[in-house]
Amino acid sequence: SYSxxxxxxxxxxxxxxxxxxxxxxxxxxxxxxxxPLLTSRSVEGEHGPGHNAYVTDEDGLVWNTYHARPGMQPTxxxxxxxxxxxxxxxxxxxxxxIRRVHFNVEGYPVLDMTEEMDLDPELKWVKTKVIVx
Length: 133
Hints:
The protein contains two helices and nine strands; from the N terminus they run ββββββαβββα. The chain is globular. With 133 residues, the chain is mostly beta strands. It has a three-stranded antiparallel beta sheet with strand order 5-6-7, with no helix packed on it. Strands 1-2 form a two-stranded antiparallel ribbon. It has helices at 88-91, 115-118; strands at 2-4, 12-14, 16-17, 31-32, 47-56, 62-69, 95-100, 102-103, 109-110. The longest helix is centred in the last third of the chain and has 4 residues, at 88-91. Strand 8 (102-103) and strand 9 (109-110) form a beta hairpin.
């Protein structure tokens, strides 16, 4: 996966893929997907996601780490709705995030599954009884 567009609310995570055994140095080996995996519309309150990486934890779960901003670009009052210049002061700093990665039936990563969607509400609270003998 890669990040593309401006480092503002249009920043997205896209994906390139290639067949097993293909030459990664040959540009013709790569296929660019026609949709981004993660955008400002993917998760409420996360704008301009990008600069991502995948990590695997000790249990074998795959996680995606990324940056996003908490706010959208405001527009100037009384102007022709031109966006203000993107800056940390205007839109908040890019913050780090991490989300568990699921994979769809074609094997592509699903990066926009929020914790609320990931966790079955019936499993939110689990009780256990420990017996020590």
